[in-house]
Specification:
The chain is about 25% helix and about 20% strand. Strand 16, helix 11 and strand 17 form a beta-alpha-beta unit. Helix 13 packs across helix 14. Strands 3, 4, 12, 13, 14, 15 and 27 form a seven-stranded mixed β-sheet that branches. The protein is of the alpha+beta class. The longest helix has 18 residues.
């Protein structure tokens, strides 16, 4: 707490230029309704963006580029305060995932195949959304993910050739671009040095186990192991709001309102005409020509359902007037489950020493004043993608290597120095759902992932744990590798492995696909992201993914948002890329 006070005093004394005032409209992010209430509600907005998260930040920037467009952004969470080190220090990740200041703090219903455990599902409740609380790992997914979108769901304009130019548009990869990577985008990406000796041993070990090193998992070859690009710049988290909203905060045609909870979408027949939102104790209505939902895979289907779009039978049972019967709203929920496979480290080279409380002042000083040290990295600096068997067409397992044995909640094994692999299947065939419990938009919905519910998922989990051991238990790691801490060498049979997964598995925090694009009866939007049967309403967030992508989902969300901006504005799409992987 004392260290946080030091950060706060320093940042407040030196960072007045980051105070978020839209000076022309006299609207600040902290208190926008009070100072611009008449302005916002006395005119029809061209675009109302619900959610100032990852996708919402992109749209905020792109839709307001034309000064004739009036853009209103409504974010339920707080601003991404400059003074709060928890948002900006990369290594402070645990505070954000376990706290509630910037996190919706969702949990699943009791999971029937995981001993009825309720699985935590943090979601960003802050400007920048999940990009303000995530692990800062930049993974696009596999090229074949997007071809699968196009081939399986009739979404021809969402294949890899159409998506690649928009991935490049997002990116400013600081070590340089190429045919696959961008170097002129809003979002600066750094490539880590991986200077802990455990990384050298790890890279040697995976090669000894028979897997290649890839220069760039987001480039020509995803398969293999390498460094993971990070959304970190100048040793600070670079969230979507810092990349897209803050640089354009003074645009006259833009209003961003934080701590504004959207209660429902307003309709005239089958046309969306506005929203009702609550800020403090007051409720407001604002009208727009186009409404764009950017709430994410949990909040977006919840908002649609309480507004009357969803399974008609369910809505009627809750007393909600049905605007449109779309049974796919909230269905098709997909996520990545993961576990930690941990080993003790025989030499004191892991990051375990950094967990000592007495080291915190030095770590904080180095990060804040010298822009270096342990606080300046997310430490998920390396990993990779492999196939767990010969029947899959492209990699179906993702690994993150961490030079420390620790859980997301910040707890570490009592044994001391260690390291771990985070591992989990990517191309899951498990399906869950998000379903409101009442007509009250403030009541959290029922969330069920159904982890471990399919035979294929269970098969791939057994393969994942065994391959984790194969990757680490090599001569290359022998000087550093101690005993297996988790699950433990005594866990060997399929039944024992699956029991371990059921007891210890955690979400990788990649929920998606609850309002999927497509043409079938369960699709919610078309390829232009317009909600089926509703005028002037689109969805732009991870909920529109037909299938969850191969890896962390922040990058594909940003790609979808950049592409959506062109769709909404009627711009000529970026030129197709004919290169492939």
């Amino acid at each position: 707490r004392g260290l946080g006070d030091v950060y706060k005093r320093q940042l407040l004394s030196s960072s007045y230029d980051y105070c978020l005032f839209y000076s022309t409209s006299r609207c600040s992010l902290d208190n926008s309704v009070n100072c611009s209430n008449k302005k916002i509600h006395s005119m029809t907005q061209d675009y109302i963006v619900i959610g100032g998260g990852s996708a919402g930040s992109v749209l905020t920037n792109r839709l307001s580029e034309d000064s004739s467009n009036k853009v209103l952004v409504l974010e339920a969470g707080r601003p991404d305060y400059t003074w709060d080190f928890r948002i900006h220090m990369p290594a402070a990740l645990t505070y954000l995932l376990t706290g509630t200041n910037y996190n919706w703090g969702y949990t699943s219903d009791p999971e029937p195949f995981m001993y009825n455990r309720e699985i935590a599902q943090p979601r960003g409740k802050v400007l920048g959304g999940c990009s303000s609380i995530n692990g800062m790992i930049w993974i696009r997914g596999n090229a074949m993910d997007f071809d699968k979108w196009a081939n399986d769901d009739g979404l021809d304009s969402w294949d890899y050739a159409h998506c690649l130019p928009y991935f490049k548009k997002v990116e400013n990869r600081l070590i340089g671009g190429d045919d696959y990577r961008g170097d002129k985008g809003n979002l600066k990406l750094t490539t880590p040095k991986c200077d802990n000796p455990l990384f050298d041993a790890f890279f040697n070990s995976v090669q000894e186990a028979g897997y290649p090193i890839t220069k760039d998992v987001n480039g020509h070859q995803q398969e293999g192991f390498g460094k993971f690009d990070q959304t970190i710049h100048n040793s600070r988290r670079l969230n979507a709001a810092r990349a897209y909203i803050h640089p354009i905060k003074h645009r006259k045609n833009l209003n961003v309102v934080t701590q504004a909870m959207v209660m429902r979408i307003l309709f005239d027949g089958n046309t969306a005409v506005g929203v009702e939102y609550k800020k403090g104790r007051k409720t407001y209505k604002v009208y727009g020509k186009e409404i764009i939902c950017c709430g994410g895979a949990i909040n977006t289907p919840q908002l649609l359902q309480v507004s009357g779009i969803g399974n008609a039978e369910h809505l009627k049972s809750l007393g909600i007037p049905v605007v449109k019967d779309l049974p796919g709203v909230g269905e098709n929920l997909q996520d990545h489950l993961e576990v930690y496979v941990q080993w003790a480290c025989k030499k004191p080279v892991s990051l375990f020493s950094a967990l000592s409380p007495w080291r915190a002042p030095k770590i904080g000083f180095d990060w804040l004043f010298r822009k270096k040290g342990i606080g300046a990295s997310n430490h998920f600096e390396a990993g990779g993608f492999i196939r767990s068997n010969n029947t899959v067409k492209y990699p179906n397992l993702q690994f993150h290597f961490l030079p420390l044995a620790i859980r997301y909640d910040g707890t570490a094994p009592s044994e001391g120095h260690g390291f771990q692999l985070h591992v989990g299947p990517m191309g899951t065939d498990v399906r869950g759902r998000v379903k409101i419990k009442s007509a009250d938009p403030l009541e959290y919905p029922s969330i069920l992932f159904n982890y471990l519910s399919t035979e294929n998922e269970r098969k791939e989990w057994c393969e994942a744990v065994r391959l984790s051991r194969k990757i680490i238990e090599t001569d290359s790691m022998s000087e550093l590798m101690g005993k297996e801490l988790s699950p433990g060498a005594h866990i060997q049979t399929d039944e024992e492995i699956l029991d371990f997964i059921a007891k210890e598995g955690e979400s990788a925090y990649h929920p998606s696909s609850t309002c999927k694009m497509g043409l079938d009866s369960m699709a919610v939007t078309d390829e232009n992201l317009k909600v089926h049967g509703i005028n002037n309403l689109r969805i732009v967030d991870a909920s529109v993914f037909p299938y969850v992508t191969n890896g962390n989902i922040y990058s594909p969300v940003m790609m979808v948002a950049e592409k959506a901006a062109d769709l909404i504005l009627g711009n000529t799409p970026l030129k197709l890329s004919l290169i492939h992987i």
